[in-house]
Design goal:
This protein is mainly α. The chain has 5 helices and no strands. The termini are far apart.
């Protein structure tokens, strides 16, 4: 049980969430969001490139979990920074709904890619299907990375004005 991949992912996600408040004192929330998305993308890249043994899978899942934890912890700060105080509860509720839909959509897309990569009569997908799923994940992480950078640039120009 101690060496199961799910546990490695859950522990690194906890670490990413727990360490984020300390990092937030030094880095603006939009940059933290972009950085966390880059870490998640790095985890996908690691999974795409190196998964021939269990240690590589644990490393990829650890990086992914750490990035997702940081991402989940940074998002409320980004939302609260641009939301009027009278609407914060609605905005945070909407964040949780969108996050749940995003997790579901990501799982469905990953499952679809793996199902499409499973040949007739085979129990498991081809190796290329796992690579394709990871590459789609990297592409998906471009969106929050660019959004976080754009928000940071906008915030920087507002504070310099």
């Amino acid at each position: 049980m101690l060496n199961c991949p799910y546990r490695a992912n859950a522990e690194s996600r906890f670490t990413g969430t727990r360490d984020t408040p300390r990092v937030r004192t030094r880095i603006a929330d939009p940059l933290l969001l972009a950085g966390s998305a880059v870490v998640v993308g790095g985890g996908f890249a690691l999974f795409a490139a190196a998964r021939s043994d269990l240690a590589e899978l644990f490393a990829a899942m650890g990086v992914l979990g750490f990035g997702v934890g940081g991402f989940s912890a940074a998002m409320p700060g980004v939302i609260l920074a641009v939301t009027p105080k009278s609407e914060t509860s609605s905005a945070m509720s909407f964040n949780y709904v969108v996050r749940s839909v995003g997790y579901s959509l990501g799982s469905a897309i990953g499952g679809l890619i793996l199902a499409a990569g499973t040949g007739p009569g085979h129990l498991f997908p081809d190796d290329s299907a796992y690579t394709t799923a990871a590459l789609v994940g990297i592409g998906a992480m471009a969106i929050p990375t660019l959004t976080g950078l754009a928000l940071a640039r906008r915030r920087s120009s507002e504070t310099n004005s």
